[in-house]
Amino acid sequence: MNAHITSLITKDLQHIWHPCSQMKDYLLFPPLIITGAQGSYLELAEGGKVIDAISSWWCKTLGHQHPRLKNALLRQLEQFEHVIFANTTHETIVQLSEKLTQLMPTLNKVFYAGDGSCAVEVALKMSLHARQITRESKKTKFIALKNGYHGETLGALSVSDLGLYRTPYQSLLFDAYFIDDLPYVLNKYDPLWFDCTEHWQRIEKKLMPYAETTTAIILEPIVQGVGGMQIYSQDFLKRLRSWTQQNGIHLIADEIMTGIGRTGKMLACQHAGIEPDFLCLSKGLTGGWLPLSAVLTTDTIYQYFYADYQPHTSFLHSHTHSGNALAASVALEVLHIMAEEKWHEQASRLEEVMFAMMTDIAEQTGKLTRVRGIGAIVAADLVDTTAARPGFEVYRRAAALGALLRPLGNTIYWLPPLNIEMATLEELMDITMGSLSEGDVE
User: Fold this and answer.
1) For residue 384, how far is the Cα from the chain centroid?
2) Strands (DSSP E) along 107-179, which ranges?
3) What is the rounded CA–CA span in Å between residue 44 and residue 30?
4) What is the mean pLDDT of residues 223-244?
5) Can you give the pTM of this predicted structure?
6) Dihedral-angle region of residue 412 (phi above 0 means left; psi in -120 to 50 means alpha; beta otherwise)
């Protein structure tokens, strides 16, 4: 490691607090210094490159430096970069909104925010606020899924069920009911994918006491990301949606990770053939180029707030960068590319290939169990070991061998760009195999 790189890392560790990190780990595993990125690869200061196997926290749907996204950004830069979005508009955001409302016919209104957590906050607030307007005073509670995750702002964290993230802040959070006994599957061929009757009967019985007091149920459709890439039955989602409609409860679909083609459909809700009352999008919406999130909702919800001005009927949530023109220009181009090149169909093709590869790794190494996958997502759990942090050790080894894996605890997963090349996937398979096979994970 040369003197410049050493100096840069030293200064980083003096001044920077990295996200989702125990900073003392950086003494053992220093940050990778990125000097460039192209396609599915990150280029390193010390030479060489690593595969971005997790799409840089699940957002690089079309990889790095996509030329059409770059050109869209540059075109917008020639006009203007950002203006206040209250009482202004521009052609790009109008076109983007038109495209977004074509994703699901009943969701024809779009509210913009800056990131995924804030999109969730908007949806939670809209649901609760709407109940005040309609004088449904009993409907003040939220239901979510066990093992679910929706972000780290306080509302989003309140409806998330991962103690690692929420326990230190429990006193700040509101109470929610979490649905357990979920019908998890390994893939779309699992019988539970098609019929989860027994699970649903138990779940419905537990839900009934909350029917009159719940304003909304929030969930990650089909795949729970931070909870370990757990996949659940589309039949469960279909039945739950029917139950919310029968009981006048809103359904909030958090498609921040699953949306924009990741699961083999443009939206994961489409696996169950359902449409929610609120749809949250971010991450892949701009292909990971710029922060932007959107909440799509129905005209019915919109009309509750549409009236002569009164403070209690106006939705006054605001973000400085709502409707940011640069982000909107890239998002619009992402939707054009997805429509023209049908990368969600490529995700379906990757499904079998990636599942077979991870299964092969599990069989050859004996180090993985519960291989599961859907679309361009595949995951497996490390088998029991005596090591304190086996996932962290695999992470370090994989980075040294040429892949950025960053496991979720002891869950190893791939979530690459949808346009990853087959040769790169084969390279990723070899690296993953090597990171597991290099002696015991200790």
Assistant:
1) 28
2) 109-113, 141-145, 177-179
3) 13
4) 98
5) 0.97
6) beta
